[in-house]
Amino acid sequence: MSIGVHNIGQGCVTCLDHDEHYILTFPNGYGRSILTVPWIELGGECSINCSKTGYNASIIFHTKPFYGGKKHRITAEIFSPNDKKPFCSIEGEWNGVMYAKYTTGENAVFIDTKKMPTIKKKVRKLEDQDDFESRCLWKDVTYNLK
């Protein structure tokens, strides 16, 4: 038994230090084995695009096959502006280690998410948020869940 959430729309991430804006889409989310030992899985295709630089990435979150296979697999290709062939391919686990293979022949650890520090979110106080900002809109639900 499982439940799936199909995420629609897109997000925007701004890197202020470089004045870059990235538009990204989201993977689908799945709650698996909800009647036994539940676990979360991501699946589907996503993209990341930077209009300023023209760099873009195509990402696939692979769902675990019914028999065998691994959980949390991800593959990605990163493209330079106007190029049809990727200059870098990524593979690994989205919640673990991802490895990069460059067209130069270099192979390296792309990122190890388990070694990344946790950074506390900076969120404006509820009284400073607009009515439809997420934490303000959902404050009663959050309170009652707690």
Detail the topology: elements first, then pairings.
Elements: E1 2-5, E2 11-15, E3 20-24, E4 28-32, E5 39-50, E6 56-62, E7 73-79, E8 88-93, E9 97-102, E10 107-112, H1 134-137, H2 139-145
Antiparallel strand pairs: 1-4, 2-3, 3-5, 4-5, 5-6, 6-7, 7-8, 8-9, 9-10
The topology string of helices and strands comes to EEEEEEEEEEHH
Number of H- or I-type helical stretches: 2
| Strand percentage | 35-45%
Structural class computed from helices and strand pairing: mainly beta
Helix fraction?
A: under 10%
What is the count of distinct domains?
A: 1
**CA distance, first residue to last residue:** 27 Å
Cα-based radius of gyration, to the nearest Å: 18 Å
Second rung of CATH, namely the architecture: Beta Barrel
Biggest sheet descriptor: 10 strands, antiparallel
Based on Cα principal axes, name the global outline: globular
Mean pLDDT: 92
CATH topology: Porin
Number of strands: 10
Indicate the low-confidence ranges by residue numbers: none
CATH class: Mainly Beta
Please provide a written account of the structure.
- InterPro entries: OSBP_sf, Oxysterol-bd.
- One of its GO terms (molecular function) is sterol binding.
- Pfam families: Oxysterol_BP.
- The structure is a single chain.
- The protein has 146 residues and is mostly beta strands.
- The protein has one domain: Porin (Beta Barrel), CATH 2.40.160.120.
- Helix content is 8%, strand content 43%.
- It has 2 helices and 10 strands, in the order E-E-E-E-E-E-E-E-E-E-H-H.
- It has helices at 134-137, 139-145; strands spanning 2-5, 11-15, 20-24, 28-32, 39-50, 56-62, 73-79, 88-93, 97-102, 107-112.
- Strands 1, 2, 3, 4, 5, 6, 7, 8, 9 and 10 form a 10-stranded antiparallel sheet that branches.
- A hairpin with a 5-residue loop joins strand 5 (39-50) and strand 6.
- The longest helix is centred in the C-terminal third of the chain and has 7 residues, at 139-145.
- It is globular and about 55 Å long.
- The mean pLDDT is 92.
